[in-house]
Design brief:
Chain lengths: ~450, ~575
């Protein structure tokens, strides 16, 4: 094949992919920065890294393609186009090319700038057919049978991939609260400025069979509560508190493990003060975008001032960084935390920065608030009774989560009250901005959180 | 009667218990043939056609031995007799023969651990310490031995030792003070027990449910449960069974976590050389929990924790039985929760359990009763039905001890529910008479005339279960799914593949199932034979009614065209 001919198909195809970042802008330039042939015989398999320039931004995308002489079985929906009478497909959907990836992992191959790594003793799902499960904002995940999950990062950020790095460290440490890593793929390229770059391209981990995410489970509980508005959260059948407590224990378990095997340090007073200053700035900006925050702003700012004045030594470590009920999976052997990439919108340096684990706790406490309120906001906007019960549900589960965390770690996060409050307040401010921009009808959720934080 | 409907020849069907639906029936409460107010063996025999019609494969009879009846007959005073009010040994033989004629098997309770204090062995032991029975029980000069053994009946017993004023010594008992434990350290005890087992096997029965097996031996410094010598003795019993009585089953009642219960199956590599079956206790409270929480995890979790068992063995599972809903197996949190939920009335608590029948436990909600029964009939293990639950009988919580769930079977709307023609005051237990579960409404006759009744439904389900060997013999695979309120699993035995999908929620639910392993198969609903769309690569979408369930057989898809 000619890489050039395949490249010519991309400008028309890329903008329709969910993981493509710049849908609203024209593509100004498109260059293949790395092309590696992983299989020669039918179906031919090429691994491409493509640098797309849009305005002043250049982003490298990972685009593996397969080429077939005849139309593939059930691949119509991932056809890029035809080249010299051959069909070009998204290779992650082609079961023969995805099987090739497994063989490369097994051989721990190095092919040009692609390096396939496996964890010691990892059992690879050889022979299991793959299926693409989800196309997320920035990755494509596929399952090999029900034994392994391959998460392919589509938008590449040069540097160490935190998801791979943390899964690797936690797997080696034997942490029971994550899906063990089986292997990962590293790659390199030369960017438009002639700089040599490397990045984590994909990770293979144990599939959490029969799992459901925490958001779905919490929503089940909340729905049950709404159906019995005369009963309290601790009286209805769908009570979630025991699960929340177990989730708190799992969270503490992961934090303890990360502190053991990854870097730690303490934050200086100056750093804490600087952090508080950034929080105040974000609040100031947020009030512009969501003026509904204005009445609470002085009281919210007080939380940040208290943080700036804090005398305590704050221990910092690697944390999850983008923690919420959608990032935890309930399995038949308890809770597992997933997705350690950090907040995708933030630059890599911030995503891997050491921070207090209380930030994750605060984020999960906010998530309980969301779980309690979002159905009410959407389905029962004017029902005061349900709103009241929802607050009770959130309180009950927030408290159970902290109890579980304290039981496992020996430290009750509620005792770090200044820190917890500042992080929670910062999160509420972030949420208010997000909702004001994207989902104004959900704005009442962070506003209620802001009100609670402002008045206690 | 179906002619030609006989049991396979002895020795030709060693796996029968894996496919069987068991039915626990209390002789005292099923049918009174002589009008003395208590059910009896002849009455039970008269009702064999009903049981055969229902489709159950094996009847389990709790103790009917001579007994002072201070513990529902579990206080045996003669291992080789029949309680006179229940009939005679001849009545029993006839019952077994006629059950076999209807291709139903019979297992009986056998209480190995202890006897009644009225048993002649105990009387001889207390009066003549040096006689042949002097060493048949566990005697001691003080009550300090085996301090690490827990007290099982915490609300009636303060010690495992009781002083006997005749022998002037203490005797050991793990249960009530009127039930002295046999001393298995004395080989003569083991021999006497095996002799009694042979006595019943020679009458043609198909096996025993062995009561309270973990406690046979005692050893200082242990909790006196599950000791190695207890297992050795069970192996010895099993050897006798295998050598002399083929196709006979031993079902152990070891009320422990599954990981400990598996010990009672014996050697894994030998395919099991102790008991053929053991009860899986935690399944039942977990099913209640899962439906209450609308979450599959209580059940999925316990299934994931259930160890593999030897090839020739099988679990026994149940929703209710003559004892109470057992809560020993759940964690403190869950126990508190189960109490709060199911035992709002303190009189419903007994020991650490709850004495209620299935229907009242589920507030007589037909959808839930059917869902629970469907899970009982489809989860791994042989299901054990409790008499009366097939018509949704109620209980009488005002009766003492565990009698609330042992009231007479309700046959008709006539006097005494058709159970007995005695004066109503003579009945050993009164029939249930409340407005919902009373015999005027809830009885076999009315269920028989109404083809949409729970009884007809149960019979149909049993029939469907029998047509699919996967239920009894198949592997179990939890397949999860997108919705945590839906419990789905596949049972697979050769080409018999059954998919079971249960909505644990009181609301309608959609679910997407990952059925890639069965791509190209077509689900056929087992109750009605309706063909569902074939399974492709993408998640399979189903919607379920509140507390609804599906059983599908998965068959390779065939093109439907006319030649």
């Amino acid at each position: 094949m000619t890489v050039e001919a395949v490249t010519a198909l991309l400008p028309a195809w890329l903008p329709h992919q969910r993981w493509f970042g710049g849908k609203d802008q024209p593509i100004d330039g498109l260059t293949v920065v790395a092309a590696t042939q992983l299989r020669e015989r039918e179906p031919e398999f090429w691994h491409l890294l493509v640098e797309v320039t849009q305005g002043d931004k250049a982003i490298v995308y990972q685009v593996p393609v397969s080429l077939r002489d005849r139309a593939g079985d059930r691949l119509e929906h991932v056809l890029l186009g035809e080249v010299d009478g051959r069909f070009v497909y998204d290779a992650l959907h082609d079961k023969e090319t995805t099987a090739e990836l497994l063989r490369r992992f097994e051989a721990q191959d190095q092919v040009e700038e692609l390096t396939f790594h496996t964890e010691p003793g990892a059992l690879l799902p050889l022979g299991e057919p793959s299926l693409v499960l989800t196309a997320e904002q920035s990755n494509t995940s596929l399952a090999y049978g029900d034994s392994a999950l391959l998460k392919v990062f589509r938008r590449l950020v040069p540097g160490v991939n935190p998801d791979v790095e943390i899964h690797d460290a936690l797997t080696r440490a034997g942490c029971e609260y994550v899906a063990p890593l089986l292997g990962w793929l590293d790659g390199g390229w030369t960017d438009r400025d002639g700089e040599q770059q490397t990045a984590g391209l994909a990770m293979l981990q144990k599939f959490l069979v029969t799992a459901t995410d925490g958001w779905a489970l919490a929503t089940t509980s909340v729905r049950d509560l709404y159906a019995e508005a005369d009963l309290r959260a601790d009286e209805v059948g769908g009570d979630f508190a025991a699960e929340s407590a177990r989730l708190g224990m799992a969270t503490a378990g992961v934090h303890a493990c990360m502190a053991d095997v990854l870097p730690t340090r303490t934050l200086s007073r100056d750093e804490v003060a600087a952090m508080a200053t950034r929080m105040v700035e974000r609040l100031d900006d947020a009030v512009e975008i969501a003026p509904e925050l204005l009445p609470f702003a002085p009281a919210l700012a007080k939380a940040f001032d208290d943080l700036a004045d804090l005398d305590d030594v704050i221990a910092a470590q690697r944390i999850h960084g983008d923690y919420h009920l959608g990032q935890v999976m309930r399995t038949v052997v308890g809770w597992k935390l997933v997705d350690f990439e950090g907040e995708p919108e933030k630059p890599l340096a911030e995503r891997v920065a050491l921070d207090s684990p209380v930030r994750d706790v605060a984020a999960m406490l906010r998530s309980f608030d969301y779980a309690a309120r979002h159905l009410q906001i959407v389905d029962h906007p004017d029902n005061e009774q349900i709103a009241y019960r929802a607050v009770e549900w959130a309180e009950r589960n927030r408290s159970a989560f902290c109890d579980g965390y304290a039981k496992s770690s020996g430290r009750d996060p509620r005792e770090a009250d200044v820190l917890l409050r500042a992080y929670e307040t910062d999160k509420v401010v972030y949420e208010a901005v997000y909702e004001a921009r994207n989902r104004p009808s959900w704005l009442p959720i962070p506003l209620a959180g802001a009100e609670r934080l402002a008045t206690r | 009667m179906n002619g030609g409907d006989h049991l396979p020849a002895a020795g030709t069907d060693p796996d029968w218990f894996k496919r069987a639906v068991f039915y626990e029936v209390l002789v005292r409460s099923f049918k009174d043939s002589d009008g003395d107010g208590a059910g009896d063996l002849r009455g039970l025999t008269d009702k064999l056609d009903y049981l055969h019609w229902l489709g159950v494969d094996c009847l389990w009879l709790p103790p009917f031995y001579p007994s002072p009846l201070r513990d529902g007959g579990y206080d045996v005073s003669d291992y080789k007799g029949v309680l006179p009010e229940f009939g005679t040994l001849e009545d029993f033989s006839r019952f077994v023969r006629l059950a076999h004629d209807r291709s139903m098997r019979v297992i009986i309770d056998f209480v190995m651990n202890h006897t009644s204090d009225q048993h002649p062995w105990f009387q001889a032991s207390r009066e003549n310490p040096d006689g042949p029975y002097g060493d048949f029980y566990v005697w001691a000069d003080d009550d300090t031995g085996y301090p690490d053994a827990r007290i099982i009946f915490v609300d009636t017993e303060s010690s495992n030792w009781t002083f006997d004023p005749v022998r002037r010594q203490y005797f050991w008992h793990r249960f009530f003070g009127h039930q002295p434990d046999l001393n298995y350290d004395n080989p003569a005890v083991g021999e006497a027990i095996i002799d009694a087992l042979r006595f019943w096997l020679d009458l043609g029965i198909d096996g025993f449910r062995l009561d309270a097996v973990p406690y046979l031996f005692e050893e200082e410094g242990t909790n006196c449960e599950n000791l190695p010598r207890t297992h050795s003795f069970l192996k010895q019993v099993r050897k006798v069974i295998d050598d002399e009585y083929p196709d006979t089953v031993l079902l152990s009642e070891a009320n422990q976590w599954p990981a400990d219960v598996v010990e009672y199956f014996g050697e894994f590599s030998a395919g099991g050389d102790e008991c053929h079956m053991a009860f899986h206790f935690p399944v039942m409270p977990r099913i209640f929990m899962a439906v209450r929480r609308e979450s599959r995890y209580p059940v999925s979790e316990i299934m994931a924790q259930t160890p593999l068992i030897p090839t020739n063995c099988q679990w026994g599972i149940f929703l209710r039985n003559h004892d109470e809903l057992t809560l020993e197996m759940v964690t403190d949190d869950e126990r508190d929760y189960m109490w709060a939920e199911y035992a709002k009335d303190p009189r419903m608590k007994a020991n650490i359990g709850i004495r209620r029948r299935l229907a009242p436990l589920l507030e007589n909600d037909t959808d839930q009763i059917e869902l629970f029964t469907a899970m009982l009939l489809s989860l791994p293990g042989s299901p054990v039905l409790y008499y009366g639950d097939e018509i949704g009988m109620g209980d009488n919580i005002w009766l003492g001890d565990r009698d609330s769930v042992r009231t007479p079977m309700q046959w008709t709307p006539d006097r005494n529910a058709g159970f007995s023609n005695a004066e109503p005051g003579r009945l050993t237990l009164p029939v249930v008479m409340d407005a919902v579960y009373g015999y005027q409404v809830t009885n076999v006759e009315s269920h028989l005339t109404n083809t949409s009744s729970l009884l007809h439904w149960t019979r149909h389900m049993i029939e469907v279960r029998k047509q699919n060997p996967a239920f009894g013999l198949g592997d179990f695979t939890d397949i999860g799914g997108s919705n945590p309120s839906v419990l789905s699993y596949v049972r697979e035995f050769g080409d018999d593949i059954v998919l079971c999908v249960n909505n644990l929620s009181r609301f309608p639910q959609p679910v997407e199932l990952d059925l890639r392993r069965h791509e190209g198969f077509q689900p056929i609903e087992l109750m009605g034979g309706v063909r569902f769309p074939p399974i492709g690569e993408l998640p399979y979408l189903l919607t379920l009614a509140p507390h609804g369930f599906y059983w599908f057989r998965l068959v390779p898809q065939v093109a439907e065209s006319t030649p």
